[in-house]
Write a structure and sequence with these properties.
Layout (H helix, E strand, L loop, with lengths): L14 H9 L11 E4 L11 E12 L6 E10 L2 E8 L2 E8 L2 E6 L4 E4 L23 E13 L2 E14 L2 E12 L4 E9 L2 E11 L14 E2 L2 H8 L1
Parallel strand pairs: 7-13
Antiparallel strand pairs: 1-8, 2-3, 2-12, 3-4, 4-5, 5-6, 6-7, 8-9, 9-10, 10-11, 11-12
């Protein structure tokens, strides 16, 4: 199982310009959609320095394939990060610490160090989602205005992506809700030819239990191969 450690820093290209255009000539309290064509989003995707949350992800394929879902508990404090989910019914914890990266099986009180290139998609800065692109593509970002999501004020965007792969052009569309207070995405819905992917953050807190970002006392260190066999 590959960790879903996240998040890529995004420079706010065109942010102030699009904000100014959206305000021009509008009645109070209303925002007109702003359309931007760029390779980077005009919204923030940086995580808070310290927080914890549950990230729920579901995927429903277009064909007759099986749907999948996952709930990942995230704890972050500066350069320390924890992600916890389940594999084959077992709780698996990923710890990214200054001393290294580790995988833990809490029920068996064992852990292993990740040696060599990390298999995670983590960076120190932000979410790596479908609207952050490095391939030669064209993305359109449309500001759909503000929307209340579970009592939280968000800015909603529609992101349309046209990507070229071996001469074939494919398109996907993502609706994304940015929590203006946190400055990060808390929900996204992506529709593409392969299916529909939903992501949502819940139980967001800006205070954490720092002991969750340590290897507990009494855990035995084992080789990665031994830990992987215990997961299967």
């Amino acid at each position: 199982m590959v960790s879903r450690w996240s998040i890529l820093t995004i420079i706010l290209l065109f942010g102030f310009a699009s904000f100014a255009c959206s305000k021009g000539g509008q009645p109070a309290g209303q925002t007109s959609p702003a359309l931007i064509v760029a390779s980077t989003p005009p919204f923030k995707t940086r995580e808070p320095e310290t927080y914890q949350a549950v990230r729920s992800i579901t995927f429903a394929p277009t064909n007759e394939g099986q749907s999948s879902s996952a709930a990942i508990t995230i704890v972050k404090d500066g350069d320390r990060r924890r992600e916890e989910d389940k594999s084959n019914g077992k709780t698996v914890v990923y710890l990214d610490l200054p001393a290294g990266s580790f995988v833990l099986l809490p029920e068996e009180k064992i852990y292993a160090e990740i040696v060599g290139p990390s298999t995670s998609s983590a960076t120190a800065e932000g979410f790596e989602e479908g609207y952050v692109h490095t391939a030669p593509i064209q993305s359109t970002y449309e500001n759909l205005g503000t929307e209340s999501l579970n009592g939280t004020t968000t800015t909603k965007y529609k992101v349309t992506v046209n990507s070229a792969n071996n001469g074939n052009v494919t398109q996907s569309e993502t609706l994304i809700w940015i929590d203006d207070g946190l400055g990060m995405p808390i929900k996204s819905v992506t529709r593409s030819a392969s299916g529909t992917r939903n992501m949502e953050l819940s139980q967001v807190k800006l205070s954490i239990d720092k002991s969750l970002l340590e290897i507990p006392k009494g855990f035995q260190k084992v080789e990665m191969q031994v830990l992987q066999q215990r997961i299967r």
